[in-house]
Amino acid sequence: MRARLLLATTLLLLGLSPALAGPWPRPQGETYVFVGHEGNGDGWTSLYFETGLPRDLTFGLDTGGHVAPLALGGPDDPVDGRVRVFLRAPVFSSPEARARRPGWMEPWLLAVEIGAGPDIEEDGAMPLRFAAGLTLGRPLETRLGAGWTTVDLRATLGGARPVRLNAAYVVGVKPTDRVTLELGLFAEREVDDLFTAFAPTMEYKLGEIGAARLGVTFKNTGERLLRLGWTRQF
Predict the structure, then answer these.
(1) Cβ atoms of 203 and 231 closer than 8 Å
(2) pTM of the predicted model, to two decimals?
(3) pLDDT in tens, 26-53
(4) What residue range is the signal peptide (predicted)?
């Protein structure tokens, strides 16, 4: 129980992911952090972190859960969540490899991702699960300014649970240096449960301290959830 309380408190003190990062490798030595919360006091609290490694590799941590009641209300409140560390590598990224790519792949970039981490169940179980993902992305030029679009697919398996499938499509644009607008479509399927969501988001840069994010999630269950977040790159 102490470990669960420590995890919950740590997540809240650190403050997840905005739009998925896409296939672009994080430059070596550069770090990106996002913290956020979706819903009311017992909603989903998240932390996303990634840093650039040599050879265009990106290492990251993607975690979140319903942890606010435990951290604020007491040790008897349930907590659940997910923790995943991952490594992402671009495909056909070198000039020589890009010259051999099929024509239809231009101007898309491609990356693969592997990850591992536990699902945190309300009964305290923490089965380890493994994930493999594929992400596509390309830059865009729009009337509102430079933008991008990404497509992300991931399969997670392990423990006694069936395969969990995730898919996401995100398009973003920067009408000014300070403002970023995003539209995302997200889906998750596990057993017979299918969850989908539409999530518009605005990000506003606040200078050296980072950027604030404000969005709304519209779920297929009829829920409408406010999302608040903060992000910084250094």
Answers:
(1) yes
(2) 0.81
(3) 999 999 999 999 988 778 899 999 999 9
(4) 1-21
